[in-house]
Amino acid sequence: ARPPRVKPETPVASSDDQQLLVRLRAGDGDAFDALVEKYHGKLKRLARLFVSTEASADEVVQDTWVAVLDGLDAFEERSSLGTWISRILVNRAKTKGVREARITPFSAMGDDDTGDELAVVDAARFSPAGKWTAPPLRWDDETPATLVANQQAMALLEVELRQLPERQRVIVVLRDTLGWTSDEVCTALEITEANQRVLLHRARTRLRARLEAHFASHEC
Question: What SS3 state is found at 140?
Fold first, then answer.
């Protein structure tokens, strides 16, 4: 059975969003061009988490922009404009991803990710906000050698992110890159809070472990 949807507590649209909405609803082409310029790249990267090809991602983004134009009058401004657009994108992308057998439907998951054998570390290593309680070694050391190492670490992080199980990667990107709240993720992906928490924790744990190993190797 599909878990109950959780109604997110989202902020009211900002004054900038409200002003932009007035222009968009009036058919201001320049306003729409500015909106596309601001969000198109982010939407493409988000779509790519769900679908198997660049062409599919482009198709999902184009469908999203059509839906945005069609839905402007119905947008109730109970979230930011960017969050609303992202939700439209996620709904379309995950449907297409399931059709492509790219991912298992999120609503079909249990409360555990049985495809990942990585042990879950002590939750105390993360703050209540999900941040690390202590950064990896030398994170704040801005010597030239360490800055180069940090660039290498970011490249490593990108690789490791792509290697995460699909469901973990989607959730960690939504939470830690796009800044979605737990409620927003649960609503968009139709999963329970417990499921979201486990998947997010495992993704963060794996990424942190790889970064720690990287910095430790540069201490030698």
Answer: coil
